[in-house]
Design goal:
Shape of chain B: globular
Oligomer: heterodimer
Structural class of chain B: alpha+beta
Largest sheet of chain B: 10 strands, mixed
Low-confidence stretches of chain B: none
Strand content of chain B: 25-35%
Largest interface: A-B, 42 and 65 residues
Number of helices of chain A: 2
Number of strands of chain B: 21
Mean pLDDT of chain B: 91
Number of strands of chain A: 0
Low-confidence stretches of chain A: none
Helix content of chain A: 55-70%
C-alpha cells in the first residue's frame, strides 16, 4: 500500500470537503434521500425472493 | 462401422470405435437393449450430437460389463425383484478427441511400443457415459468435459475432479456427474439432487447417496398421498428433506424475478455450491408479436452448474441504480436430466404472456431451453424457485449483505459524484460467497497487492465462509468488503476491508472517523470497521 505524505495531504483536503458536504443542508438531504432509496431497493429484493408456502407442495414431475 | 463385435453371450472386455453420432446411437441401443428408433427420438441424442461435435470427439472405447455403484443400488432396491430379467451390469463409453484404433489401445495395454501412451490418452480424454441396461431411460452416470472456458465468459465453478480407471490406466476429468431419471427410482428432482450432492459431497464432506437412496430419504419423514416407487416426482418439501438427509440445510428462494435469479445463482455458484432450479415449462407460440404460453408441460427440476457473463453492461437495479456483476449473466448451464449435462438456458429478454382467469394476459420473465417440439426453442421456462443446499455454518443470507452494500454504495456514489473520490465512472459490485482458502489463494496469486500489506491480509484470522463484495471501477478493483457469513445479522460481521486504492481508503477512514455512526445506521458494521482502522 502506498501510504505517502502526498496522499495523506490530498486525503485530508478531500475529507474536509466531504465533511462540509455531509454536514451541509443539501448534503444531509441528499444522503437521507439516497439512503431511503437504498432501503427501498433492499426491501424490493427481499419481497421478490419471498416464496409462497403453497408452492412448496407442488410436485416436480417432468 | 461393424457393431456386431460384441456378443452379449461372450462379451469382449473392451471395443474401440471411430466416433460418429450414428455409431454412438447404435452403441446406446445395443448396450442398453433399447430400440434405436427410441434412441433417435430422445432429446439426449440431439444434444450429444452437438456436444461431441463441439468437443471434437474422435474415438470411443467401450468398457463392457461395467459395474456402476449408483445403478447397482437402484437395481438392488427395485429392478432385482422384477419378473423380467434386467441386467445388473452396465456399459461405460469413454470418449477421446484423438483418433486411434483397437490395435493402438491393445499395444498400450500390452506395453508394446505404439502411437498411444498414458499421457496422450489422458490429455485426449473427454469423459464417459454409463449406459444402463434398461428399455428407455438408459443414460446413467455421465461425466463429460465442459465447453471451453478459456477466453470465454463461461464459468463452471462447481465442477470437480473425477478419477477414472480404464483397465489400469488412470484418467482424470473435470466435470459434475449427470444422469437421466429412470422414472422408477428417480424423477427429475432426484437426478438434479444427485448431481448437486456430487459437488456438496466433496465440498462439505458428506456421503453421496444413490438416486434410490435420495428418493427414499426425501419421502421418509413426510406424509405422501401415493406410493414412493415408482417415483413420479418430488415437491420442494421433499427435496429439502433429502438435503437434510445428507446433513446440509435447505434454503428456498423465489426466483420469478430475473434479477433475484441471477444474483442467487451467481453468489452461491461462485462459492462452488450448485443448486436445484425449479422451473415450469410451457409450449409457446407467437401471437400478435408476443409469446403466449399455450400449454403447461408441468414443473421440472434441474441442477444449475454454470453461467455466462455475456452482457457487456451491468443492469442498474432499483431507484439507486445499483450495479452488480451478476446482472451481466446472459446464459446459465444446467444438468437437465431430459436434455443433457451443461445444457444452456438463455436470458433472451422474452416474457411469456399467460392468460388469466378473466381472459387478460399476465407477463412472466422466461428463459429459452433446449427442449423442442418440432421447432427450435418453442418450449420456454418460467423460473419458480431455487433450493440451495447449505453447510450449517453459512448463516447470513445474500439479501442481508446486499442491503448493506446497496446502502454503502449510495454514500460512496454520492461522494464520487461530488468529486471526493477520483473515479470517472460508477462502481460495479461483485458480490459472492467464498471461503478463506479460495480468497487467500487468489490474493497470493494476484499482483494487485504486495509487500507487508499483502502479508498482513494473508495471515489475518478470518472465518471459513465469507461474503465478498468487491467494488470495481473501469475494470480495476477499488475495495473489497469481507463479511463473516457464519455470524448473526446483528453482529459486527464486517471482517475486513481490503484496500486497493490508498487515497480512497484514507478518505473513507477519515470520513467515518469524524461522521458519527448514527448518521449511517444502515452501514453500521462497515462504518465501524473503517472508524477503528484510523487509530
Amino acid at each position: 500500500m502506498a501510504n505517502n505524505k502526498t496522499a495523506n495531504k490530498e486525503a485530508t483536503q478531500l475529507v474536509d470537503r466531504a465533511k462540509e458536504l455531509l454536514y451541509s443542508r443539501e448534503g444531509k438531504n441528499n444522503i437521507k434521500e439516497a439512503l431511503k432509496q437504498a432501503g427501498e431497493t433492499a426491501t424490493k429484493y427481499d419481497k421478490a425472493q419471498f416464496i409462497d408456502p403453497k408452492s412448496l407442495n407442488e410436485p416436480f414431475t417432468i | 462401422m461393424n457393431l456386431s463385435l460384441s456378443n452379449d453371450k461372450k462379451s469382449l472386455p473392451y471395443e474401440v470405435f471411430k466416433y460418429h453420432i450414428s455409431v454412438f446411437k447404435k452403441l446406446l441401443a445395443k448396450k442398453s437393449h433399447a430400440n434405436l428408433e427410441h434412441i433417435n427420438k430422445k432429446y439426449h441424442s440431439i444434444y450429444f450430437k452437438n456436444y461431441f461435435r463441439e468437443l471434437h470427439a474422435k474415438t470411443i472405447i467401450v468398457e463392457n460389463e461395467y459395474i456402476d455403484r449408483d445403478f447397482l443400488e437402484d437395481y438392488a432396491g427395485y429392478y432385482v425383484r422384477c419378473f423380467h430379467h434386467y441386467k445388473r451390469r452396465c456399459t461405460r463409453l469413454h470418449f477421446f478427441d484423438i483418433a486411434f484404433c483397437s490395435s493402438d489401445f491393445k499395444n498400450l495395454l500390452t506395453r508394446c511400443k505404439g502411437s498411444l501412451d498414458k499421457k496422450t490418452l489422458n490429455k485426449a480424454y473427454l469423459g464417459f457415459i454409463v449406459v444402463k441396461p434398461l428399455p428407455q431411460t438408459i443414460i446413467g452416470r455421465t461425466c463429460l468435459k465442459t465447453y471451453k472456458t478459456k477466453r470465454t465468459q463461461r464459468h463452471f465453478p462447481v465442477i470437480r475432479s473425477y478419477k477414472v480407471h480404464l483397465f489400469g490406466i488412470p484418467l482424470e476429468i473435470e466435470s459434475l456427474s449427470f444422469q437421466e431419471q429412470d422414472s422408477v427410482a428417480a424423477a427429475c428432482a432426484t437426478s438434479a439432487l444427485w448431481s448437486v450432492f456430487h459437488r456438496t459431497g466433496t465440498l462439505f464432506h458428506h456421503a453421496i447417496p444413490s438416486p434410490l437412496e435420495i428418493t427414499k430419504s426425501a419421502t421418509s419423514n413426510l406424509p405422501i398421498m401415493t406410493r414412493i416407487l415408482p417415483n413420479t416426482g418430488l415437491d420442494i418439501n421433499q427435496m429439502a428433506n433429502a438435503i437434510i438427509g445428507v446433513g446440509l440445510e435447505p434454503f428456498v428462494i423465489n426466483v420469478k424475478d430475473n434479477y433475484v435469479l441471477k444474483n442467487t445463482l451467481y453468489t452461491y455458484l461462485r462459492g462452488r455450491i450448485p443448486m436445484i432450479f425449479g422451473i415450469s415449462l410451457w409450449d409457446v407460440s407467437s401471437e400478435n408479436k408476443r409469446l403466449v404460453g399455450n400449454k403447461p408441460r408441468g414443473l421440472h427440476a434441474v441442477a444449475i452448474t454454470g453461467y455466462n457473463l455475456g452482457l457487456k453492461k451491468t443492469i442498474p437495479y432499483g431507484k439507486t441504480g445499483f450495479l452488480n456483476t451478476a446482472s451481466r449473466i446472459d446464459k446459465i448451464y444446467v444438468h437437465d436430466d431430459q436434455i443433457g449435462p451443461f445444457a444452456r438456458m438463455v436470458f433472451d429478454n422474452n416474457q411469456i404472456s399467460l392468460r388469466g382467469n378473466d381472459g387478460s394476459f399476465i407477463k412472466f420473465d422466461s428463459l429459452s431451453t433446449s427442449w423442442q417440439d418440432g421447432q427450435d426453442g418453442n418450449v420456454r421456462a418460467i423460473p419458480q424457485s431455487i433450493l440451495v443446499p447449505l453447510y450449517h455454518k453459512i448463516r447470513i443470507p445474500f439479501s442481508a449483505i446486499l442491503k448493506e452494500v446497496v446502502e454503502f454504495d449510495v454514500v460512496f456514489n454520492y461522494l464520487r459524484e461530488k468529486g471526493i473520490f477520483p473515479l470517472s465512472q460508477r462502481q460495479e459490485w461483485d458480490i459472492y460467497l467464498t471461503t478463506i482458502s479460495d480468497l487467500k489463494e487468489e490474493l497470493f496469486n494476484s499482483t494487485e497487492l504486495n509487500g507487508n500489506y499483502l502479508k498482513g491480509i494473508l495471515v489475518e484470522d478470518m472465518p471459513r465462509f465469507l461474503w465478498r463484495a468487491t467494488a470495481i471501477c473501469a475494470g480495476k478493483k477499488i475495495l473489497d468488503l469481507l463479511f463473516d457469513a457464519t455470524d448473526i445479522e446483528q453482529g459486527d460481521h464486517c471482517v475486513i476491508a481490503i484496500e486497493y486504492e490508498s487515497l480512497i481508503s484514507e478518505i473513507l477512514k477519515n470520513i467515518f472517523k469524524i461522521v458519527p455512526e448514527e448518521k449511517f445506521p444502515a452501514i453500521r458494521v462497515i462504518h465501524k470497521w473503517f472508524k477503528e482502522k484510523t487509530t
